[in-house]
Amino acid sequence: MEIKKREFKPGNLLYPVPAVLVSVADGEGNANLFTVAWTGTVCTNPPMLSISVRPERYSYHMLRETGEFVVNLTTESMAFATDFCGVRSGRDTDKWKETGLTKGSARKVLAPIVQESPVSLECRVTEVRELGSHHLFLAEIVAVSVSEAYLDANGTFRLSRARPLAYSHGRYYGLGDCLGSFGYSVRKTPEKKAKARRREKSHDKQQKSEKR
Ligand SMILES: Cc1cc2nc3c(=O)[nH]c(=O)nc-3n(C[C@H](O)[C@H](O)[C@H](O)COP(=O)(O)O)c2cc1C
């Protein structure tokens, strides 16, 4: 039976996405932060990401001035601050003070990192495309800091333990249960492995008897 579909006018319904906190600074080192959901990974090597920003944002001139910014991942416990930074402007609000988020020194860029964030990606802009309502900043990731609290005994980074925040169609969510890991759809389960072993064994037996 056909599943009924309704036509919507063309628009952005690409969800869920992360809602990140982007920190920026002007040439004098005055720092601001704002929320961005139009962000994405665009290249593995060199490591690159993009953010799309409306020119009317207070942060926009800082991005243009320094060509640098930091993408700070957010967590469930940062949901309130993430929303606040997306509805108040640095023009008239000190968002660091109001949210209690703490500035930390970045390794390679002037903009600070958000200390409470589990992952901070320091970026240098390589290209700006003026698309329309939003200008797309393509940027290279030049340094990465992760919170040691989420490293396990083997030193492996476990992002899920930070409880990352997702944004979907106007609402914030946690991630819920893990449903599988990369490639699990084709990975052999113990039952499948045992079956494959049995098949191999019977194949070997058959070949031996054919040789006799
Ligand atoms: C969940 C969420 C996602 C947002 N995503 C974007 C975005 O991708 N690009 C953008 O220009 N503004 C985005 N905004 C709006 C800005 O964060 C908001 O206008 C902010 O107040 C700008 O801060 P500023 O004036 O201090 O630079 C988003 C807001 C929220 C709440």
Count the beta strands. Answer: 12
User: Radius of gyration from the CA trace?
Assistant: 23 Å
Tally of domains: 2
CATH architect. name of the largest domain: Roll
The whole-number mean of residue pLDDT values reads 95
Shape: elongated
With strands numbered from the N-terminus, the spatial order across the biggest sheet is 3-2-6-9-10-5-4
Helix content: 10-25%
Q: Residue ranges: pLDDT <50 for 5 or more in a row?
A: none
Assembly form of the protein: single chain
Strand-and-helix sequence, N→C? Answer: EEEEEHEHHEEEEEEH
The biggest sheet amounts to: 7 strands, antiparallel
Determine the CATH superfamily of the largest domain: Electron Transport, Fmn-binding Protein, Chain A
Task: Give structural notes.
- There is one protein chain.
- The mean pLDDT is 95.
- The chain folds into 2 domains: 17-173, Electron Transport, Fmn-binding Protein, Chain A (Pnp Oxidase, Chain A); 187-212.
- Strands 3-2-6-9-10-5-4 form a 7-stranded antiparallel beta sheet. Strands 1-11-12 form a 3-stranded antiparallel beta sheet, with no helix packed on it. A two-stranded antiparallel ribbon has the order 7-8.
- The protein is elongated, with a radius of gyration of 23 Å.
- The chain has helices at residues 58-66, 79-85, 95-99, 190-211; strands at 17-18, 20-25, 31-36, 39-43, 48-53, 68-72, 103-104, 113-114, 119-130, 135-146, 166-168, 171-173.
- The chain has 4 helices and 12 strands.
- By secondary structure, it is of the alpha+beta class.
